[in-house]
């Protein structure tokens, strides 16, 4: 067995701190937004990524594929299709062919350091398509006013972050990026959505920020409301077509690579004809120096189980001491997190369905409250009109119907804030239709009645 220094999370952190000490000095001279983003970054060591790849050497599923699982940050647990993230302790199993592990990791554990720092889509990559979920028309969806980055919901606040934007490069217009919901991170060309926290970089001059936003982060409620239904559908259909083409090519490459790998590795496999042979091989390895060192961090039963699983499943030793350490860490985390309760193991499709149902219930409740408030306001206005009209002595039929002023008709649907785009968002719970999508999401109170905004619903007129 190769002798490699065991990687402990604390050791990894210290090494990363040493590697990025100079970056931290430079970071102090950056903008506030850039400093926040850099301080939250987690740069996973190449060694850890390679270990994660090796845990999938016997992955049985074609979809989600090995590459999808590796890119999502999950480690294989060698128990069926169970996987775990060692950073946020999310454990999932019973994957469906349509599941996208990257998006599931992002949705179920948005605060995971791996998710925040590594699952960033760029225009030069082709990440897996989202899990296929029933399409909900934008005009029927109620969106809660709960942005991931509330400090950038206001358009001027997002605009201020572009002071150091590289204007000399062939990039999209800043106004288009701002309207699409992005604020500038201060690093390279990385921009982040104030609502969904999704980030994009490597922009081209002809890229449309709104379309790219919807393409890579289709679950973002802000960009859903910003796009009209037809455009949103076309974007997703185009993405599905690209996924099918990419998936076919990747599958062919994977099959070729692993067929070659299996041919070269079969000759080196250990011969384990029975359980007694397995027990003898495990006992010999438990006496090794690396196993004795691991006893300071893990129980003997955990180390023994890892050797048994490795030899029984892969019929080979761990490629390195670090692989053994990671196997022990994964097993120990499973024992601690699951704790004998099946409900601690997440089934992605079921959990996403639960979240969808929860959002539907909240949306229905918010819509019901909005209707009640609107009806109540109408009743009060009618009563007020009756009271004020009683003293009038002028006959009703003598009142001349007022004609709309010149230009009043075409200005009726104009956003009350920017006076440019059409009104598209109704505030919940008051129900007032007053603003376009970008302006509406920058508000905390309704501009007409000043009530606090709990959610928005897009309305088509």
UniProtKB/TrEMBL annotation:
Organism of origin: Didymodactylos carnosus
Residue stretches of biased makeup (Basic and acidic residues): 396-405
Residue spans crossing the bilayer: none
Metal-binding recorded as keyword: yes
GO (cellular component) term, any one: cytoplasm
Upper lineage: Eukaryota, Metazoa, Spiralia, Gnathifera, Rotifera
GO MF entries: cysteine-type endopeptidase inhibitor activity involved in apoptotic process; ubiquitin protein ligase activity; zinc ion binding
Biological processes per GO annotation: negative regulation of apoptotic process; positive regulation of protein ubiquitination; regulation of cell cycle
Region annotation (Disordered) ranges: 377-405
Domain RING-type, first and last residues per copy: 415-450
Family recorded in the similarity comment: Belongs to the IAP family.
Name under which the protein is recorded: RING-type domain-containing protein
One of the Pfam families matching this protein, by short name: zf-C3HC4_3
């Amino acid at each position: 067995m190769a002798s490699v220094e065991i990687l402990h999370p604390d050791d990894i952190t210290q090494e990363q701190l040493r590697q990025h000490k100079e970056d931290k000095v430079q970071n102090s001279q950056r903008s506030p937004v850039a400093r926040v983003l850099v301080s939250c970054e987690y740069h996973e060591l190449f060694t850890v990524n390679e270990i994660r790849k090796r845990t999938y050497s016997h992955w049985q599923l074609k979809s989600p594929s090995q590459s999808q699982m590796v890119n999502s940050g999950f480690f294989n647990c060698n128990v069926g299709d169970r996987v775990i993230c060692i950073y946020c302790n999310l454990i999932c199993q019973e994957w469906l062919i349509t599941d996208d592990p990257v998006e599931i990791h992002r949705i179920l554990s948005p605060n995971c350091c791996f998710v925040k720092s590594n699952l960033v889509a760029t225009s030069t990559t082709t990440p897996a398509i989202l899990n296929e979920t029933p399409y909900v028309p934008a005009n029927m969806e109620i969106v809660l006013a709960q942005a991931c980055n509330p400090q950038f919901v206001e358009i001027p606040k997002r605009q201020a972050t572009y002071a150091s934007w590289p204007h000399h490069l062939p990039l999209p217009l800043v106004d288009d990026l701002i309207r699409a919901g992005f604020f500038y991170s201060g690093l390279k060309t990385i921009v982040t959505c104030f609502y969904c926290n999704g980030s994009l970089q490597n922009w081209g001059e002809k890229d449309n920020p709104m379309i790219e936003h919807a393409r890579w982060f289709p679950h973002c409620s802000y960009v859903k409301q910003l796009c009209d239904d037809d455009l949103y559908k076309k974007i997703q259909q185009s993405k599905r077509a690209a996924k099918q083409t990419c998936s076919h090519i990747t599958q062919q490459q994977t099959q070729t690579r692993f067929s070659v790998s299996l041919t070269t590795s079969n000759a080196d496999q250990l011969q384990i004809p029975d359980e007694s042979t397995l027990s003898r091989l495990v006992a010999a390895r438990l006496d090794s120096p690396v196993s004795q060192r691991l006893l300071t961090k893990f129980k003997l039963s955990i180390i023994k189980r890892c050797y048994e699983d490795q030899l029984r499943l892969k019929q080979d030793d761990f490629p390195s001491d670090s692989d053994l350490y990671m196997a022990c860490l994964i097993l120990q985390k499973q024992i601690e997190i699951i704790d004998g309760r099946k409900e601690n193991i997440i089934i992605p499709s079921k959990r996403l369905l639960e979240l969808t149902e929860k959002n539907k219930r909240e949306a229905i409740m918010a819509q019901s409250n909005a209707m009640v408030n609107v009806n109540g306001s109408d009743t009060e206005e009618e009563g007020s009109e009756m009271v004020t009209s009683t003293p009038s002595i002028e006959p009703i039929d003598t009142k001349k119907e007022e004609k709309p002023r010149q230009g009043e008709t075409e200005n009726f649907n104009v956003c009350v804030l920017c006076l440019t785009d059409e009104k598209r968002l109704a505030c919940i719970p008051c129900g007032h239709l007053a603003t376009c999508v970008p302006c509406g999401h920058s508000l905390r109170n309704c501009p007409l009645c000043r009530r606090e905004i709990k959610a928005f619903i897009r309305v088509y007129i």
